């Protein structure tokens, strides 16, 4: 059987929904035989994959390539050039993203103040940290050896996303962790200070 038209063509007599969702008049008529998925999680994915919305997604893809050696897997541009969907790999992990589409009823985004941190483990935190800063990131926590066994630091990228960059350098025992934590906070330091 022939594949349905793509992109989906609206049926006559229907209006697009203003909330950004595709209404049933935009549904692709899947009246042809489709192969069943062999696995509920696609090859190369884990159970959880971050999917972020960013203004200027195409520029963000370029930034991710410079800062974190991202490899572009796919992109799906809208007719106006904004990205409906993009997929990159950073190391062995996936990140999906799309442009902001307020014209389709998407809620406002917390531009520059994202309430999340993308944690990136690498073989050489010092080199990755320097590369991220060279690509335009701002240091928010200098790279240092941390009590939990990571060489770890934080940067904020030019699009407002927070990144933790780390290399695991030792495996402290639970007792060592407890002792190090106590020593860290004995001077009246508050958590996160």
Quickly describe the structure:
The protein is of the alpha/beta class and 193 residues long.
What would you note in describing this structure?
The chain has helices at 57-68, 125-134, 174-185, and strands spanning 51-54, 71-77, 83-90, 93-99, 117-121, 138-145, 150-156, 162-168. Among the domains are: 46-99, Signal recognition particle alu RNA binding heterodimer, srp9/1 (2-Layer Sandwich); 113-187, Signal recognition particle alu RNA binding heterodimer, srp9/1, CATH 3.30.720. Helix content is 18%, strand content 27%. Strand 3 (83-90) and strand 4 (93-99) form a beta hairpin. The chain is globular. The longest helix is centred in the N-terminal third of the chain and has 12 residues, at 57-68. With 193 residues, the protein is α/β, with parallel strands linked by helices. The strands form 2 sheets. A 4-stranded mixed sheet has the order 1-4-3-2, covered by helices on one side. The protein has a 4-stranded mixed sheet with strand order 5-8-7-6, covered by helices on one side. The protein has 3 helices and 8 strands; from the N terminus they run E-H-E-E-E-E-H-E-E-E-H.
Descriptors:
Signal recognition particle alu RNA binding heterodimer, srp9/1; 193 residues; four-stranded mixed sheet; 3 helices; alpha/beta
Order of helices and strands: EHEEEEHEEEH
What is the percent of helical residues?
A: 10-25%
Give the N-to-C terminal Cα separation.
Answer: 62 Å
**Major sheet attributes:** 4 strands, mixed
Total DSSP E strands: 8
- Overall structural class, as computed from helix and strand content, comes to alpha/beta
- Overall mean pLDDT score? 82
Number of helices: 3
The 3D shape can be described as globular
The radius of gyration over CA amounts to 22 Å
Query: Which regions contain 5 or more consecutive residues with pLDDT less than 50?
Result: 1-17, 19-30
